[in-house]
Write a structure and sequence with these properties.
Elements lengths: L10 E2 L5 E5 L2 E4 L2 E4 L2 E4 L2 E4 L14 H5 L6 E5 L9 H9 L3 E5 L1 H13 L4 E5 L4
Parallel strand pairs: 7-8, 7-9
Antiparallel strand pairs: 1-6, 2-3, 3-4, 5-6, 5-9
Pfam family, one: DUF498
Protein name: Mth938-like domain-containing protein
Organism: Mesorhizobium argentiipisi
Length: 129
């Protein structure tokens, strides 16, 4: 039996503020992650939507599984603010989640404030360089 590298899905079990962002990734809980993040009440997950410019409901399956624990979703859209696609906004509304798109930097700052206030917040953060 050959030994090799086991690649696991990136996941941090728990809540943590985002300490830094940029250079294509994020720092949190004394760790770093290259790529985008989906930050949920159950933990922080590596997240790579197929097309960050065309987000769809399927990109948020883990969020919808925890919909009862999330009131606010902050969506860091990269360097610039972009609106959420209408079908995604409808799916989030039907799940009782208020979505607020903004730049990734603004989403990180807002997430940290709401987390410190113990609010029911989640964040989908597209990595920026």
């Amino acid at each position: 039996m050959a030994k090799g590298i086991i690649i696991r899905e990136a996941h941090f079990p728990g809540k943590a503020p985002i300490e830094a962002y940029g250079n294509g990734g994020f720092r949190f809980a004394d760790m770093s992650h290259r790529g985008s993040l989906l930050v949920l009440p159950s933990g922080i997950h590596g997240w790579e939507p197929a097309d960050p410019l065309a987000l769809k409901a399927a990109d948020f399956d883990k969020l919808f599984a925890e919909a009862g624990n999330v009131e606010i979703l902050l969506v860091g859209m990269g360097k610039d603010l972009r609106p959420l696609p209408a079908p995604l906004r409808v799916a989030l509304n039907e799940a009782g989640i208020s979505a607020d798109p903004m730049s990734t930097g603004a989403a990180v700052r807002t997430y940290n404030v709401l987390l410190a206030e113990d609010r029911a917040v989640a964040a989908a953060l597209i990595a920026v360089d």
